[in-house]
Amino acid sequence: MMVTRRKIVAEGSIPRKLDGATLHHFRGSLGRFATGVAIVTFDGVSRRHGITVNSFTSVSMEPPLVLVSIARSSKAHDELKDRPFTVNILGAEQQALAMHFAGRPGLEPLWVEGETAPRLSGVLAFFSCTPWAAYDGGDHTLYLGLVHEFNYRKGDALAFANSSFTTIPESQLGVEELL
C-alpha cells in the first residue's frame, strides 16, 4: 500500500517545524533506509560516555575522515565538542550493547584504552578519531573526525531498519578481497 506523498517545504520557503503526524510520517520514511548501528565513545569532562547512533558515514579517504550525527538532546552531546572519539561498529550479536548506550542499561561493557580515545571490546570495526570539524545539523550536530586508528574483524553486522534491529550477513559486507 502506498501512502500519500507529503510535501513539507514549499519552494523558496523557510523550513517549518513538523506537526506530530507529519513528524511521525517523516521518521517512518527515513526508517525505510537500513543503516548500520554504531556507538560513539569518548572521555568527557566528568566521565566516560557512549552514544548509540545509526548516522555514520565515511567522508574522505585523503585525509581519512568520518562523520557522526549526534542529537542535541543527547545527554553527552555538549561534552563531545572538541574531544577525541571512537566510532564502534557493532556486530549482529551486540544488540544488547546498542540498547545499553541508547538508555536501557544492561551489563557494563568491556572498554579498551585506545591511543586516541576509548573504544569497546569485541566490536565489528572501529575508527578512533580526533576532531576535524563540527557543523550545525538542525536538532543534531555533525561531527567530523580525522581517523588515527582503525580495524575490523569478520562477522555479521548489526543493522536497523523499520524500527527494528536486523542483520547484514558478512557475505554482503565490503569488497576487501577484490582490491
What brief labels describe this structure?
179 residues, mainly beta, 3 helices, seven-stranded antiparallel β-sheet, three-stranded antiparallel β-sheet, globular
Describe this structure in words.
Helices cover 12% and strands 40% of the residues. By secondary structure, the chain is mainly beta. Strand 7 and strand 8 (119-120) form a beta hairpin. It is built from 3 helices and 12 strands. The longest helix is centred in the N-terminal third of the chain and has 11 residues, at 20-30.
Radius of gyration: 17 Å
- Bin the helical content: 10-25%
SSE pattern, N- to C-terminal: HEEEEEHEHEEEEEE
Largest sheet: 7 strands, antiparallel
Low-confidence stretches: none
What would you call the shape? globular
Task: State the separation between the terminal residues, measured CA to CA.
Answer: 42 Å
| Number of helical regions | 3
User: Roughly what fraction of the amino acids lie in strands?
Assistant: 35-45%
Strand order of the largest sheet: 3-2-6-9-10-5-4
Q: Structural class from helices and strands?
A: mainly beta
Average per-residue pLDDT, rounded, comes to 85
Total strand segments: 12
